[in-house]
Amino acid sequence: MRQIVIPKYGGVNVFRIEEKPDPQPGKDEVLIRVKASGINFADILARQGLYPDAPKRPMVVGYEVSGVVESVGEDTDENLKGKEVLATTRFHGYSDAVVVRAAQIFDKPKSLSFEQAAAIPVNYLTAYQLLITMGALKKEESVLIHNAGGGVGLAALDIAKKIGATTYGTASSGKHDFLKQRGLDYAIDYRTENWLQKLKVLTDGKGVELVLDPLGGTSWKKSYQALRATGRLGMFGISTATESGLGAKLSLLKVALQMPWFNPVGLMNTNKSVFGVNLGHMWGEAEKAGRWMQEILDGVEEGWVQPHVDKTFFFEKVGEAHAYIEARKNIGKVILVP
């Protein structure tokens, strides 16, 4: 098999492609011949040495793939062989062959390409947890989606539209037309506008019931201020850590120092709540996540889940793919293909 390896922390030029023997599935496992792999911001943080959950170097990152089941291990259903599937992976997704537990695979919808299927697991499971499971968004409520043009942002927009909530989103102006076509009610240009002031104007000073914030640092403080009574702040990333140009430890320290401290008494007095989402820490809840995934895949068949692939890169161009995402050029998912 071929794998994209990160031998050391650094920029987009550190990747190397290596040939290794195919992994062998064990008990209750399957081997997937990968057709497409999803790229996530956690992969970029891992490459830069900013992701504490990353495997030891040299490492192979990647949380999601789509492909065909090639072989199965002991006590695994032989009928799975030849099935087109999508799967969550605990790293090693940047490979053309990967072994996962049978519980981590799902039938690929026939209406989707392999690239579209690989765009589903991380983005839509994260968005589902943020909006439905923990955010409890209702039809009569409103939500602000930061980085609305990203993979999680578009997934959250699909789910919020299904719920019937009013949607606000921050994104650069070049993405606004696309987002409005996808159903975003109000687009805010975070680069040229004070997004908090603009949101207050749009909501008659009230704010919104739910904010989804992957940015971290000072953004979490402003997002908390954007909540009206009974509002919830969902935090699920620290992408601003990659923008300082500082070393890894200094970047994390800077972001940590900028984070707000939420006091329980203050939360009670303002009738607000905050919560965090890290899908990478949900491996012990496979059954729960599996139920969410089934609802998402049902949404594909019903037409309200529409994974959008912005661009596809071959394995050899993985550095270009990371640079493309870091420059915030993508609308939706960026995919690797072997």
Largest sheet: 7 strands, mixed
First-to-last CA distance: 10 Å
Strand proportion: 15-25%
Question: How would you sum up the global shape?
Answer: globular
User: Rg to the nearest angstrom?
Assistant: 20 Å
How many β strands by DSSP?
15
Describe the structure.
- This protein is of the alpha/beta class and 338 residues long.
- The chain folds into two domains: 2-119 and 308-337, Alpha-Beta Complex (Quinone Oxidoreductase, Chain A, domain 1), CATH 3.90.180.10; 123-280, Rossmann fold (3-Layer(aba) Sandwich), CATH 3.40.50.
- It is 31% helix and 24% strand.
- It contains eleven helices and 15 strands.
- The protein has helices at residues 41-48, 114-118, 121-133, 151-163, 176-181, 195-202, 218-225, 248-258, 264-270, 286-302, 318-326; strands at 2-5, 16-19, 29-38, 64-72, 84-88, 97-101, 105-107, 142-145, 166-170, 186-188, 208-213, 227-235, 273-276, 309-314, 333-337.
- Strands 3, 4, 5, 6, 7, 14 and 15 form a seven-stranded mixed sheet that branches. Strands 10-9-8-11-12-13 form a six-stranded parallel sheet, sandwiched between helices.
- Strand 14 (309-314), helix 11 and strand 15 (333-337) form a beta-alpha-beta unit.
- The chain starts with a strand and ends with a strand.
- The relative contact order is 0.15.
- The model has no long low-confidence stretch (mean pLDDT 94).
